[in-house]
Design goal:
Blueprint (H helix, E strand, L loop, with lengths): L6 H22 L1 H12 L9 H37 L6 H6 L1
Helix pairs in contact: 1-3, 2-3
């Protein structure tokens, strides 16, 4: 109820965007996961002609998913740090405790 946005609010919005993009990438790559599981379990034999391309796209999507997930996670962590730093500004000896 501060009626304005602070740095921690911006970091949370960044986290929301990162995790939303992460969810989109996961949903877009779901077909490749199902095809890879079918190939690994032997249900899809012989291999489709475009399977190497599908596997490469899946690997790229998994890397992107990891990057977006950890970016969102660290954004939330930094948001907590900024929030608690601002929350303890008026507390005596807070600066000593903060850096300890």
């Amino acid at each position: 109820v501060f009626r304005r946005l602070y740095a921690d609010d911006g970091l949370i919005l960044f986290a929301l965007v990162f995790l939303l993009v992460n969810s989109i990438v996961v949903q877009v790559g779901a077909d490749g996961v199902y095809e890879s599981v079918a190939v690994a379990s032997g249900q899809l034999y012989p291999l489709p002609a475009d399977f190497p391309r599908t596997a490469e796209k899946l690997a790229r999507k998994e890397i992107a998913t990891g990057i977006f997930f950890y970016s969102g996670l660290w954004s939330v962590k930094f948001s907590f740090l900024v929030f608690f730093k601002r929350l303890g500004e008026g507390v005596r000896h807070q600066n000593k405790v903060w850096w300890a």
